[in-house]
Fold these 3 entries.
Entry 1:
Amino acid sequence: METLIRDVRYGVRTLVREPGFTLLAVLALALGIGATTAVFTVVDSVLLRPLSYKDPERLVVALRDPTASGPVSPADYFDYRRDARSFERLSAAQAWGATLAGGERPERIAGLKVSADLFDLLGVPAIVGRTFARGEDEPGYDQVVVLGHGLWQRRFGGNRSIVGRTVPLDGQQYVVVGVMPASFQFAPFWQTRAEMWVPLNLETRLDDREGRRERREHAPRARIRTSEGDRPSNRHRRQPRACSPAAADREPAACRSRRDRGPGARPPGC
């Protein structure tokens, strides 16, 4: 014990005599601890924790081609909704953002435009109010917004009476219809900072098969159609997988995880 005390005293005297070295050591420790904490936070939220969705092991991200290299175009999305048999339901999402006015100062808020049935697909209800109703992604009915829990607390003080009130987004008035739970994050690997959601209307782009604006923004979310006996275990995946809808229809089990099919296996299109 005495040896430990002498060593500590010697170390403190050395650090006091060398302020430059002390500052460098503190900065190195701070950077190392900060980087480690950041990496662990990402790994924990994306890989370790189960997603707060209903049946997360059945969720996939439907991409454009068998190599899963890019989002689909609006026209292809409607084709998949009409023809794909391997999916119980498909919904679309597109990166978006708007300036929220009012309060002490305007604030740029990251968000998503989503199909009206996306929250039903994910199986996550609002904790205040509701999510989008059927038809609210059609022109004339789409001036509604669902708020994230953090935005609700930060800008509106957690006031439950915010539901039914209008908020100005990029100069347009949107009616607040609901607030999502604090644990809700969509999706954990894409647009993770989204704090509000508005309806996505793709009806005006039925013939768009290039999807140039959507190559970085537009990607359907799908729930695989399975029977109870074929349902994968919750431990197999912590985040939605990527899959080509066309490949999934060619082989019903195409979107199972690699772990289900053995080490090194890669199903076609996934």
Entry 2:
Amino acid sequence: MKKTSLILLISSLFLSGCSFPHASDDPYAVSDFNPIQAEPSEQALDDERPLNSTLALATSADGLTYTPIEGWISDQAHLPDAVVDDEGRIFLYYTGWIVGGELDRTAVAISEDNGKTWTYKVLTVTGGESYSSPHNADIVLLPDGTFRLYYTAHTLDFTEGIHMAESQDGVHFEYKTSVFVPSESESKNSTTFLVNDTWHMYTESDEGSDAIWHLTSTDGITFGVYAKTSFPMGDEFVTPNNGIWIGDTYHLFVSTRKGEIKSWSTKNGNDWNPDDGIVLAPEHGHRFVKDPTVVELEDGSQLMIYVTDIVD
């Protein structure tokens, strides 16, 4: 009698439309790894390693002045870049000191609630095995939903250049081509944006911030050298990070030696002017803010993800 009753109970559950728990159909619901949480450590301000860096958040109503907000993404991480897809999900690409048990890898943090919570994926690129793993992610979302990733990698002889891969899910990429690998110099840490029908890419050369490569393209795949340029601010040259459109003007954020974030603006991708004021300055005991990326949220506000030092 007990066995018969159990069979009848299970049958009634299925007939009533109930089912047993199953894995989520959302491919972004589960993290591949847990992000690093770290304590402050002694580190020079100009040290490029992310050992004492954390990814922080700030918000803005006008796109040019930002206020830090509560939130945490990952420690020992830097070089962020982000896009928002048609469903409002933020895809944040960054380089972590340790990602999924591997040293110095690129990760993707995905948020479906405007940056309040995140899941974490290990970025993969199939093909292009003769190059090192991707670094310095420079992400663009195309109108058809394709994620196009420009990134820095080096060959076996350690020649650094810019390469490109594409993805339909923003996590698993397929290598497409080398974009710019100068034979007698180097190219790294690109930022890329579209103005009308022309793609513009700015990328560091072996001369550092004093001489920035400016490349242009009509298809975003084949680039040619337009010029070598620089972004002087006071007694220093700054390196472009990432930018945002506000009306018909593109504002490109830069990081200064004083540990502040400022910006330059253009309407055509070629001619630039420094904007007035400071976009974001360190506060509450932080020594620096740098390497910002900004996305626009559904309510019209801007969310900045930036790098700062870990403090108690």
Entry 3:
Amino acid sequence: MCTKVATPGYDQLMYSFDTEGEGQKQVFDDVEPYFHYWHADGYTRPWLPFTASETPSTVSSARWKLIPDMVQNEAAADAYANTLNARAEDVFVRASYRPYVRQYRGLLWVKGFYEPQRTGVRTVVPHFIQAISGEPFTLGCIYNNWTDKDTGITSRTFTIITTPPNKLLAEIHNEGQRMPLIIPPLQRRDWLQPLTDQQISGLMQPLPDGFLKAHPVSGLVYDRRKGINNNQPQAQKEVQMQKDLFS
């Protein structure tokens, strides 16, 4: 599963929008201030920078965890099944995703993401995975513009699609054996356009090796104790891996 990501800083994201060869220009369109996450935990349902197929040249905030239309209100949304991720193999069949995958696809802008590596019987080491270039990149998503029936407020909510891993992620995420769907720059325009099921499936493939790099980080990203701030630069700092005495 991919449940922890980092977003680029505002200036870095704006610079990437102006890069030639992206296949599309991007602009911000948001009434809320841009919030930079060194570490965003999907279980808190954060608002993150997102490009939707309805507005392919605009970046605005969307909320992590896809909420289907049938959900009544915010309390029910919190309690709804875990839809932080959608397996590529399931998006055309599962009720939570089937109504949206053909029309509502989007791009989540990230600096990187975190995955755990099992290194021993009692040891799990989180890793930060990012582009070798250090530039922001995009994850393929499905979204829904969900309306809270109690308040009438509509929010864009999304799930990150996952695929089988490439070689790098198979070594790191060695228990889960999944990776987020990464949409390369030259495929972004296609991903946001109307496509056939076959074309969508053709884009939902593991990213070939050679684009990503990874390093171990501290357990800060998994520390959920009250008062602990794990949204800080320290979350991405490389650490030395420790040997498990019980392995």
